[in-house]
């Protein structure tokens, strides 16, 4: 539904996007993550055709938008609805008026506008707020209006730029649940950019991690959590910096069903060794379960080696804990 092939965008001497390729399947919720300045906004702006790349192609809903002239480009924007961090609602218009404006700009005839606005307000659960003004709404309600407005022209793709960053955790959860429902009910394809790893964990099927305009890692989250050394998995399940120790300190990743097994207690019993757990982070992601824990092996060299071999044989991903933490992206940005 969305394909970028070797997209490069420069601003003067800054390369905001450096040969970025990605593919978003129809009906997928796709996250674009990375530190400030990584190129996330530029990427989404090439998808909604606000930015023309210097090289590469962008295809949205079957339209190769990098080859369209300006008039065709304006028409093609209707395939993608855009949702913003700070809602961008007009204070002087009611909720319904804000949604109708999008239809007015798209050239929808007057008598269809009100009916369509009411349809999308119903979809986002705001029917009873249609005649309210933005100042009378909570942040979550404002963002629902933003989503309704983006959906008014029946786009196949919904693009969200830090859409939950200004919301509290509970409101964020309800907006993410709404996105999932809209994807399921309307078959929408959703691309969101975020610096919040909770958002990726809760709602995304796939993601791309950008750094300095380049793709560091991308794919389905269920696959990434099973990939040794995955920087995105480190960010999704952070363990923090490790404390130096005379014993081996290991970060273990348990992809999928292994996480439900009592591996650590079994190994401690089988090898007659004490294992200390100093950090843990686990949860559901991309339709699977995953978790990471940091352990300290307190046995002698031989027993520790046997535990290590056993862990690997069971499919646990074993990495030496890095003293400064292994977060390459959002964790370091927040620090
Ligand atoms: N219009 C512009 N003119 C000049 N430089 C720009 C422009 N837009 C973006 N850049 C630069 O391109 C790089 C990528 O910026 P971009 O806004 O895409 O990153 P981002 O990942 O969205 O960051 P943030 O999370 O802070 O919004 C940055 O170095 C930025 O300064």
UniProtKB/TrEMBL annotation:
<comment type="similarity">
    <text>Belongs to the ABC transporter superfamily.</text>
</comment>
<dbReference type="GO" id="GO:0006865">
    <property type="term" value="P:amino acid transport"/>
</dbReference>
<keyword id="KW-0067">ATP-binding</keyword>
<dbReference type="GO" id="GO:0005524">
    <property type="term" value="F:ATP binding"/>
</dbReference>
<protein>
    <submittedName>
        <fullName>D-methionine transport system ATP-binding protein</fullName>
    </submittedName>
</protein>
<dbReference type="InterPro" id="IPR003439">
    <property type="entry name" value="ABC_transporter-like_ATP-bd"/>
</dbReference>
<dbReference type="Pfam" id="PF00005">
    <property type="entry name" value="ABC_tran"/>
</dbReference>
<keyword id="KW-0813">Transport</keyword>
<dbReference type="GO" id="GO:0005886">
    <property type="term" value="C:plasma membrane"/>
</dbReference>
<comment type="function">
    <text>Part of the ABC transporter FtsEX involved in cellular division. Has ATPase activity.</text>
</comment>
<keyword id="KW-1278">Translocase</keyword>
<keyword id="KW-0029">Amino-acid transport</keyword>
<dbReference type="InterPro" id="IPR027417">
    <property type="entry name" value="P-loop_NTPase"/>
</dbReference>
<feature type="domain" description="ABC transporter">
    <location>
        <begin position="2"/>
        <end position="237"/>
    </location>
</feature>
<dbReference type="Pfam" id="PF09383">
    <property type="entry name" value="NIL"/>
</dbReference>
<comment type="subunit">
    <text>Homodimer. Forms a membrane-associated complex with FtsX.</text>
</comment>
<keyword id="KW-0472">Membrane</keyword>
<dbReference type="InterPro" id="IPR003593">
    <property type="entry name" value="AAA+_ATPase"/>
</dbReference>
<keyword id="KW-1003">Cell membrane</keyword>
<dbReference type="InterPro" id="IPR050086">
    <property type="entry name" value="MetN_ABC_transporter-like"/>
</dbReference>
<dbReference type="InterPro" id="IPR018449">
    <property type="entry name" value="NIL_domain"/>
</dbReference>
<dbReference type="InterPro" id="IPR017871">
    <property type="entry name" value="ABC_transporter-like_CS"/>
</dbReference>
<dbReference type="GO" id="GO:0016887">
    <property type="term" value="F:ATP hydrolysis activity"/>
</dbReference>
<keyword id="KW-0547">Nucleotide-binding</keyword>
<dbReference type="InterPro" id="IPR045865">
    <property type="entry name" value="ACT-like_dom_sf"/>
</dbReference>
